Amino acid sequence: MKEYWVVDPLAKTIEIFQNEKNKYILNSEFKETGIAKSILLENFEIDFLTII
């Protein structure tokens, strides 16, 4: 898996991890605001407030 997202509605966070050389690195983190964008999927983005 090249990328995965962790959405935590209780903590109100979204974390996006990217696989680099078989290790997952935190690429982006959002807390309560922002637009989360996929590194792999062009034009795929989610407004934080619409899912939390």
Describe the structure.
The chain is mainly beta and 52 residues long. Helix content is 8%, strand content 56%. The protein has one helix at 48-51, and strands at 3-8, 13-20, 23-31, 35-37, 45-47. The radius of gyration is 11 Å and the shape is globular. The relative contact order is 0.27. The model has no long low-confidence stretch (mean pLDDT 91).
Features:
three-stranded antiparallel β-sheet, mainly beta, 52 residues, 8% helix, two-stranded antiparallel sheet
In percent terms, what proportion of residues is strand? over 45%
Please provide the count of β strands: 5
Q: Output mean pLDDT.
A: 91
Q: Helical proportion?
A: under 10%
Give the helix/strand class.
Answer: mainly beta
Strand order of the largest sheet: 1-2-3
Elements, N to C (H/E): EEEEEH
Distance separating the two termini: 24 Å
Tally of contiguous helical segments: 1
Q: Spans of 5+ residues with little confidence (pLDDT < 50)?
A: none
State Rg. 11 Å
Shape: globular
**Largest sheet report:** 3 strands, antiparallel
Question: Secondary-structure blueprint of this entry?
Answer:
Elements: E1 3-8, E2 13-20, E3 23-31, E4 35-37, E5 45-47, H1 48-51
Antiparallel strand pairs: 1-2, 2-3, 4-5
Quickly describe the structure.
This protein is mostly beta strands and 52 residues long.
